[in-house]
Amino acid sequence: MSPVAALPAQMADVARRLRSESKDTETILRAISASAVESIPGAEYASITLVTGKAAVESPVLIGDLARESDRLQAELREGPCIRSALHSDTVWIRDMTDEPRWPAFSAAAAELGIRSMLCFTLYVEGDNFGALNLHSTRVDAFDDDSRSIGALFAAHAAIAFSSVREKEQIRAALTNRDIIGQAKGMLMERYTLNSDEAFRLLARLSQDSNTKLADVALQVVDAGPGE
Length: 228
Description:
By secondary structure, this protein is of the alpha+beta class. It is elongated. One of its GO terms (molecular function) is kinase activity.
């Protein structure tokens, strides 16, 4: 059976696995990377590149040393297919790293490491934050039409799973922040004989004056304790 013919069952298995691993960001990213190597023909190594604020480049999960070195090079050189895919929502395909003119510095260094072909997919775009799935091979032209078709569908499933985890974490963070702000307000109300609105306005003023997030200011108040 060809890879494409087996695709429906394969993607169903991938979706089930990703759902079972959707505990937190690190867990889901590791599951996506490992599943990509197993599911996409030609992939030997994988990484996920996260770009925050169009500046900071992170690779929290990598499968294989070549993936680690590839992402390190791109972060240092500020160029390469992973960054392009993350920033511009493009699918990037490199057939032969020794004949890749788009990123000359990266291509030369990557070829020297032994990376011969790559395939990169956008995972998400959220404001100025971006994520890309990157696949690496030590063979020239390792990613054929089937690889690209399967990879695109896999990336779509992975993006949904990752988005779900991020939403859950954002909700948990929001609830945690609300509780911390509530605690800080209570402490300020008791310490300075303020009502609820006055305590909140004081927190907001401290946040504005110090250019610090409201939740972080509240946490500082809570950590400082009730005082005398």
